[in-house]
Amino acid sequence: MRLVFMGTPEFALPSLRALVEGGYNIVGVYTRPDRLAGRGRALTPPAVKTAALDYGLPVFQPPGLRRPEAVEELASLKPDVIVVCAFGVILRQPVLDTPAKGVLNVHPSLLPRHRGASPIAAAILAGDEQTGVTIMLLDPGMDTGPILSQRAVPVSPQDTSGSLGGRLAEVGAELLLEVLPRWLADEIEPQPQDDSLATYSSLLSKEDGEIDWNLPAIDIWRRVRAFNPWPGAFTTMEGQILHIWEAWPLSVGGAEEPGTVLSLSAEQRQTLPPEVDEKETLAVQTGEGLLAILRLQRAGRRSLTAAEFVRGQRDLFGRRLGP
Fold it and tell me: Highest-confidence range of 215-224, 252-261, 281-290, by mean pLDDT?
């Protein structure tokens, strides 16, 4: 049985590792081209490329898979099945038709909920108490193919896209190893999705991270978590970028203008999560309630706890954040 794997970021690494350790005959690994990254703009390979080379696997990095020559190259590998995990390329019908056993996709949501490019962030933004992983057969649509298996994963109030994504990646790899042999043995009947229940997530941009302090505190809190680690939730203070990395919503609030920096009372601090033991915590008035700020970072500086940040600022309370 000949298998081709397609993936790009760190999220795909557990699935690739599972296939290697499972003894599958991986005849090719497809990933995106190297990109310029970091302050030095150095050419940086995708995480999957680095891992595949460490495993001694052949790596392919075409700019896309639409050109006939790219499809022909893939076909020359004679794959029986293709496994996709966060590849970042929409596969057209000629690619889908290449392997006899189809193209399986590891998608980090409970489809048909959160189809699209940013399902992990979408689950946090929606306030979902659980999300999960779906192993599906790809078709030409946007995550519309039939489902082979699913597994639910709880969403913690402390979860960020980074922490939740890490768990989903591991669960996806485990589920893939359970589903793949059964699929290859014709033991699974694909189940169509209910399109009436579908929701969609869009590709995130850097601008999505800008905080609108007129929103309720709970909505901003979800954005802080959903946009961690990227693009990061941010505001401005005296015209400079200020990233908010950790926060907690409080239902209490005053009459101050949204964006006003306030000091939390001892009683208000008692409503924070038990793991927050800072003596000094700042908050920001929102459109509804207060947002306690637990960790933040000025542009070009290191990340600080609220207590550290307060000690380094004069006349902080009463200032307004944002434009």
Answer: 215-224
Q: What is the pLDDT of residues 87-99, one digit of tens each?
A: 999 999 999 999 9
Specify the CATH number for the domain of residue 96. 3.40.50.170
Residue 278 has pLDDT above 70, yes or no: no
Burial category of 21 from C-beta neighbours within 10 Å (exposed 0-12, middle 13-18, buried 19 and up): exposed
**Using an 8 Å Cβ cutoff, are 261 and 316 in contact?**
yes
Sheet (strand 130-137) strand order: 59-60, 25-30, 2-7, 81-85, 103-107, 130-137, 147-154
**162 with 44, same domain?**
yes
Residue 278 near residue 307, CB atoms below 8 Å: yes
Residue given tokens 């590998």 in the structure block = 77
Query: Considering the domain boundaries, does residue 319 fall inside one?
Result: no
Q: Write the CB contacts of 98 (distance below 8 Å, at least 6 apart in sequence).
A: 71, 74, 75, 79, 82
Determine the pLDDT at residue 265.
Answer: 85
